[in-house]
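Me: Here is a favour to ask of a fellow structure person. Could you put it straight underneath, so I can go through it closely?

Assistant:
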Amino acid sequence: MPQWFDSLGRLPIKTVMVHEQRMAYLDVGQGPPVILLHGFGGSMWQWEHQQVALSAHFRVITPDLVGSGLSDKPDIDYRPDQLLEFLVGFMDELQIPQASVVGNSMGAGLALGLALDHPTRVSQLILIGGFPAHVMEHLASPSLRRALTTSAPSWLVSFGNWLFGGLVLESTLHEFVYDPALLTPAVLDRSNRNRQQPGLFRALLTVGTNLPLWEENFAPRIGTITHRTLIVWGEEDRVFPLPAGDLLHRTIVGSTFVRIPKAGHIPQWERPDLVNQELITFIRR
């Protein structure tokens, strides 16, 4: 476990035990709590540009979800209900009864699940680039579609990752990020280090297996959400194109929809100047 998260500043990486598993997280700033949830295959790095800007106003908590990043990757099914149990347990261990919850991509799906099954734990809901109902109908990324539909065993995928993972990773990141100039050697290097975490691919492959559980138990209820909701979408999103965001906006009555120009599926990383201001304004309102 590294001691520090080195990005725009040097932040200590903290850990906490949740249901007998270690979760790594960042915890900076003071004020109303804001929890940032990363997406499929991601980690706390997806929120590197939010740490300084948001912590000037809020207490910002950024976990590596169980099965991802520096957190433990136990031999479990990674069903949506299990991921929710870990998120609620994480909040309990940090003594956070309620927070503004911000999720990107699959993290937005987890944020939606928390709002639906534990509504009192969410004060405000912010969804960035996800998570629409009928996921496979909206999914435009060939790389993610292959990952979610593969029938290959995890050992074979891990072996292929060892042989060709760097090339596949770079191709995938080009689907996620609109501006290729942002994919510097340093960014590619840390992404490669993340994919080499032991146990990562087994955890990732369960997401596709469990997608029907999301569609059955959560997606049909999205329209019942009554929390103040902000939906942020990159105009050049090649994973879930803009119409998916517009549909989510129309499904959640009263939600606010913000489009971010010249940004793909991780607009908070590509255009933090615009996204941070939207987040701060919405949460403080």
Summary: Confidence is low (pLDDT under 50) at residues 152-167.
